Amino acid sequence: MYCQNRMVHTVQEGDSLYRLARQYHTTVTELILGNPGVNPYNLQVGMKLYVCPGESYVPPQGGSANTGNTGNSGSTGNTGNAGNGGNTSNAGVGGNIGIGVVIPGGQRPGGNQTAGEMQNSVNQLFETMRLAWLELIYWTRMYMMSVDSGADAKEQYAVEGRLLETADAITDVFAERLPVAVTRQLRNLLVEHVEMTGQIIRTLKSGDKENYEQQIREWYANANQIATLLADQNPYFAGKETRNLLLNYLDMTREIIEHQMNGEYDQSIDTFRDLSDLVLELADYLARGLLAR
């Protein structure tokens, strides 16, 4: 995305995306999209983040250490003049790292699409896939915490509704690159996955261990169905990595839920950090597969 007054923020102690969104009058989503190579749940002091401040943002008097407009390179994580579709895998000052994606297989742009436009399309695919999976685990955690805290039914229902939307967000990333019938099957499986996750959280909270174990088995079977569906459509997904990444995602999510319900909050948070890294890896893998199709 183009930003006329893009700035670079150096992460300080205590910074979070939510704090920076308030400081620069922008949104967490915009910060994530503008920094595709950054783990939003593990900001490091000294890290450089691109920020596109909102219209109401007023710089502090006397200026700031942030740099001004960095050009028209889009939200690829490139620094300075690195833009125009170059390899984004180079680290910027302070460790800001791009996704590292180039046009696959040395393809040349087709039709009226330039190489730069094609590269931007590739970058957008990776960014959108990452955001969709990050939102899935974020809203899963939000729902888990609402159930664990005993929030009223109205709040739980609202959070669960938002969680279900993440299945559509992930499906939308695949929709342009899969047949309609397959996209519909994928959406059904993802909705089923999200509904099962909510059910698992509620069941464990209730203490019904027998039903919990049965639901876990069905949850893993659903993930295997997703892996099989993708493999049937795309040879890139036919290997073990697709299934392994999905099952690892379930393993970590289950661990987070169990830690939370046992009152082991530090362990739950630590595992959530690991899960955020894993889903970024999963998202990039899925995006590469769609490009290889």
UniProtKB/TrEMBL annotation:
SUPFAM superfamilies: LysM domain. Residues 80-89 have a biased composition (Gly residues). InterPro entries: LysM, LysM_dom_sf. SMART domains: LysM. It comes from the Bacteria. Residues 7-51 form the LysM domain. Pfam families: LysM. Residues 62-79 have a biased composition (Low complexity). Gene3D superfamilies: LysM domain. Residues 61-89 are annotated as: Disordered. Coiled coil: none annotated. This is LysM domain-containing protein.
